[in-house]
Design a protein that fits this description.
By secondary structure, this protein is an alpha+beta fold. The chain has a domain of 93 residues: Immunoglobulin-like, CATH 2.60.40.790. The chain contains four helices and nine strands. The strands form three sheets. The chain has a four-stranded antiparallel sheet with strand order 3-4-9-8, with no helix packed on it. Strands 5-6-7 form a three-stranded antiparallel sheet. A two-stranded antiparallel ribbon has the order 1-2. It is elongated and about 60 Å long. The termini are close together. About 3% of the residues have low confidence.
Amino acid sequence: MTLSVLSSLDTVKTLAPALGPYLTLFSAELTNRKHVHITQERPGNPGELQKLRNISFSRPTAQEIQPLCDPVKITLDSAGCKVAFLTGRANIQDVNAKTSLANGAAVAVNQISPRVVQISIGSHLQNIVYPFPVNSANSKTRIARKSSYVEVSAHVNVLRTDLLNITTD
C-alpha cells in the first residue's frame, strides 16, 4: 500500500528530491499486519462504497446500483505484492434469465463504461460495477448455470502499473 503526493509540475520540482520520483510519503506491504488493516469500508465512513459506485463518468442507471452483485474480490499475484485482477459476481434473479442460463443460453460480456461490465443472457442485461476502472478485453468469465450467477475477472486498468505495486522501500 502506498500513499503518495499527487504529481504536478510544482510538486515534482519541490518534493521529488526528498520523496523520490513517485512522491511516496508512506509504503507498506499488503501483508504487513502492523500498518495495513483491510476493511470493507473506511472507518467512520459508512456507505462509502455505495457512494463511490454512484460516481461514474456517466450517470449510473438504477440497474447499476441495485444489490444484485456480491462485493468485488481482489486477487493478488503469486508474490502477494500486486493486484492481479478484480472479480465481480452478478447474481441472476430474473426468472426467465435463470431458466435461460440453466438451459445453456449464451452469456455475453461487454464493457459499457470504465467501471461497469454488462452481462447479457438472451434479452436480460445485468451490470457488474467495479470500484476501479477495469479492462475486460482479456477477462475470464465463470458461469454457474445451476447456482444462477456469472463471475467476471478483469485486470485493473491503470495508466501507471506501479500504482498497484504494494512493496516497501
